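pinging the channel bc i need a second pair of eyes. not urgent but kinda urgent?? the chain im working w is below, pasted from the shared doc
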Amino acid sequence: MPDATTGTLLRLAAFTTDPSGGNPAGVWIGATFPPDAEMQRVAADVGYSETAFLVPDGSGRPGRHRVRYFSPLAEVPFCGHATIASGVALAERGLADADGRLTLETNGGPVPVSVAEDDDGRVRATLTSVATWVREPEPWLLEGAMRLLGWETDELDPSLPPAVAFAGARHLILAARNLDRLARLEYPFEGLKGLMLRAELTTIQLVWRETPDRFRARDPFPVGGVVEDPATGAAAAALGGYLRERGEIEAPATIEIIQGVEMGRPGRLTVSIVPGEAGVRVSGNAVPI
């Protein structure tokens, strides 16, 4: 285990088995957290959409860690892809319990993570989000987002109405009627950032339903200092909660989300709904960069 002053900084790509795909994340493992300003500096220097900082939670129990997430601009409450990367990194260093389980105490509550080898012998992590909720967006938020993104009402999928969904962080979900709308992404960075900060959104989850159990996604992330996030585990969990809330899927169910294609960093996120669980499971690989 690294000492309290230095820690170990790793770089991994999550939701992929190709270092050039998926979503890059920083993972810092140490004995105690550095000062907040230092964590913010490290996250900015790394330059990825998020860096996770992990320390033992103080319980002395195997596999239990406290985690905080920083984008290049600010601390965020939860980050799915950095959680997947953290799960793989901890497991590969023998820091899960004997059954391959981890508990990461986030700012929003505990997030269980399980790790296991896939059929190709690679470590794969599965997180279970905190309990999800779904709300109708306030008119000013929906109108502002549509205007800034350049979307028209008739370009929305009427079967999947806009919503704000939560699975550890808030996301505005907008579903496109066709893939062509999803393929075009352009917006005023500061304008959308300001709207999202007012609504306390982490990303905007833009999706297109290819089949009942397969989606394409893009996630503008100006509040984190980047135009677009390549693979967003927190938004994937929120989408799973949204689909469950609407009755589009019923437990047990699994859907697949393909994200990052337009950025040249394709990733694959597996979302599972399990009977009796208030959260949503999100699974993926992670590999060193």
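so The first strand starts at residue 8 and ends at 14. and The mean pLDDT is 95. — does that match what u expected or am i reading it wrong
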